[in-house]
Structure formats: C-alpha cells, structure tokens
Amino acid sequence: MKRSISCAFLLSSCPLIALSPCQARADGGAVRISEERGNYRMTVFTSPTILRAGAVDVSVLVQEVGTGELAVGVHVTVKVMPRGATDVTYEGPATTEAATNKLYYSAIFNLPEPGWYSVEVSACGVLGKAEVRFDLEAAEALPSWLAMLPWVGWPIAAIVLFGIHQVLVRRRCR
Fold first, then answer.
1. Domains and their CATH numbers in the chain
2. What is the pLDDT of residue 89?
C-alpha cells in the first residue's frame, strides 16, 4: 500500500518539475567561462540556466592560480552591454553579500530585451588585476502566466495528491 502511495506521489510530481526546469537551480548556474588571467582563475556562472530577458544572476568564483584557493580581498566588477552597442545595460560591483553561496561574488541585474550581450568581468586584488570577456544570448522573456505557473500550480498539485490519497484509502476500506 505504501509503495503505491509513493509511486503516485512520484508520478504526480514529475510533470511539475518538467514544467519549470529553471526553478530547480543549483548554486552558480551554467558555467560561461573559466580562464586563468594573471594570478587569478576566474570562473563565471549565469543563472537561470536558460538565459532570458529579465533578471539575471552573474556569479564569479575567483581563485589564486598557484594554490587553487579562494582569492581573498578581491573587488569584482561586472559590465554587461548589448553586442555592438556602446550604451551600458549594467555596470556594478559583484559582492559576496548578493551571493547565495558566499564563495562567489554575485551581481543581479535585468536584461531589458532578448539578444546578444557582451559581458566583461574584472577582478582587482593584492595579486593584481584580471579580466575575462564573453558573449551570451538571452531568449525572449517568459509570458507572465508561465512565469507564475509554479506559484499558482502548487495548490493544484496538492489537490491532485489529496484526491489520489482519497481514492487509495477508499480502495483499502473496501
């Protein structure tokens, strides 16, 4: 009996996970670049994994090249601009306070529209200065109803699970 309840729970939760894969985020997100520059190894992550116009988290892991340990006392700056344009969409510091994982330096900003963007990440500390550059593409923003689906959909999932539970209990009573 318990096995059928756990199977029903598993089968009913799979569609919810499939509907919003971007909500199942890990620390950091997708690796965009990882390079040694000067005395630093800089690894840059972006989240959400499927990058879309709207809120974007750029996280940076800065390590010392010689030891592989975290670089301490580093100031990290992120600059994002539309490809081929001179106007800056975002320029600001990436801080450990903004990061969920305190090993990273993080900057959160909004991409105003879909398209290609150039990203420059620079680190400055006692070991010198380093900079990495890369391009990324942002897709169209999700429709508002689809972005809200996980928040609106979870009560529906609870009702479905309750219904499955009631069916199983009635079977057992017969």
1. 2-173 (2.60.40.10)
2. 79
Summarised one tens digit per residue, pLDDT across range 96-148 is: 998 888 899 999 988 888 999 999 999 999 999 999 999 999 988 877 777 67
Chain centroid, CA 62 distance in Å = 18
Question: pLDDT averaged over the chain?
Answer: 82
- How far apart are alpha carbons 168 and 11 in whole angstroms? 15
Query: Is the separation of the CB atoms in 118 and 78 below 8 Å?
Result: no
- Where helices occur in the chain by DSSP H, the ranges are 2-19, 144-147, 149-173
Contact criterion met (CB below 8 Å) for 136 and 116: yes
Residue 132's Cβ-count burial label (10 Å; 0-12, 13-18, 19+) is buried
Cβ atoms 44, 57 nearer than 8 A: no
Rounded Cα distance between 62 and 105, Å, is 8
Q: Which residue has the tokens 């009573």?
A: 173
